[in-house]
Design goal:
Length: 322
């Protein structure tokens, strides 16, 4: 039976891949995480996942974790790196992590398919006008694989996971805060109201469905990009959906870059770079290049994904919106 090794197995994307493929009797699932003793890792082990430890900063541990794997889902985490090493070093450290992973995979005699979690490049799509390190570095990593490891690149598929609906509860900066005097909720971001977000919506469900489709596509997916985006929504629409779902009066408030950085520090600076780019270049499909995309229809998953409205409704019903 083929084995898929999943980096970030306790995270949003990796966890989704693990859960989806656990339902597939044709795959053995190996979950890779830094801490095999965490509650999340122990839960995976109880569900039948082979849980192993690896740190992308430690090449030998990466090599050991992917040994014997037929397929690998690889992901790195800019925000975790930024928290550990600082924002100034985050991109270079993440780039090295991607290289460490790729070099180990290139040497694997059993690997048949590498699915790498990446993102569009604001710098490239805007002709250098915009840049956002947490986006650009992932595409820089893909370029490095293409240029330096052609054997690995020949069996690689990019997975682009759009904006998570769960960010609206998981990130302090994106929560709908209550104004005490009026009980109105306000959503604040450094973007025009008509600026758009490319939503993967329920990433905890959708990532796994798309990755399973990529694996089924096999060679047809090599060298192509699977864009996991269910909806393009403006900030105004994001607030309107929240109001409809919760019944709470809600407004969107766009602020300038300096104000947002004062509110949220380094995260605010990094995030506003992304949003100023997406105001002008909202389409991830255009950024990918239509000819490079393997569509959700080709993957056989169109109609199976959970969209933004449905994801927001589910979060409200489960009590996630305080």
């Amino acid at each position: 039976m083929p084995t898929i090794a999943v980096f970030g197995a306790t995270g949003a994307q990796g966890g989704s891949v693990v859960r989806q493929l656990l339902k597939n009797p044709n795959w053995k699932v190996r979950g890779i995480t830094r801490n095999v003793n965490s509650a999340s890792a122990r839960k995976l082990a109880q569900q039948g996942v082979e849980v192993v430890s690896a740190d992308a900063n430690d090449p030998p541990s990466v090599t050991a974790a992917i040994t014997g794997a037929t397929a690998v889902f690889g992901i790195t985490f800019f925000w975790d790196v930024a928290a550990a090493f600082g924002y100034e070093r985050a991109a270079s450290v993440e780039m090295q992590q991607l290289k460490n992973m790729a070099i180990a995979l290139d040497d694997s005699p059993t690997l048949e398919h590498f699915i790498v979690s990446a993102l569009p490049s604001p710098s490239r799509s805007s002709g250098g006008k915009h840049h956002a390190p947490h986006f650009d570095v992932k595409q820089d990593g893909v370029d490095w694989i293409r240029d330096n490891l052609p054997g690995l690149w020949a069996k690689t598929t990019e997975f682009w996971g759009g904006f998570y609906a769960s960010n609206m509860v998981g990130l302090e900066a994106l929560r709908f805060h209550e104004v005490p005097a009026s009980k109105t909720r306000v959503l604040i971001a450094p973007s025009k109201p008509e600026g758009q977000l490319a939503f993967a919506a329920d990433i905890h469900t959708n990532a796994g469905i798309v990755v399973e489709g990529i694996l089924k596509a096999g060679r047809k997916a090599f060298g192509r990009i699977a864009v996991c985006v269910t909806d393009y929504r403006s900030w105004r629409e994001v607030a309107e959906v929240y109001e409809r779902v919760t019944g709470r009066p809600t407004v969107y408030l766009g602020v300038d870059d300096e104000t947002y950085t004062k509110l949220y520090g380094d995260f605010g600076t990094e995030f506003r770079l992304q949003l100023r780019w997406s105001e002008e270049y909202p389409s991830w499909h255009e950024a990918a290049g239509r000819e490079k995309i393997i569509s959700l229809e080709e993957l056989g998953v169109a109609g199976k994904l959970v969209g933004y409205d449905e994801a927001m409704e589910a979060m409200f019903k489960s009590g996630q919106f305080a």
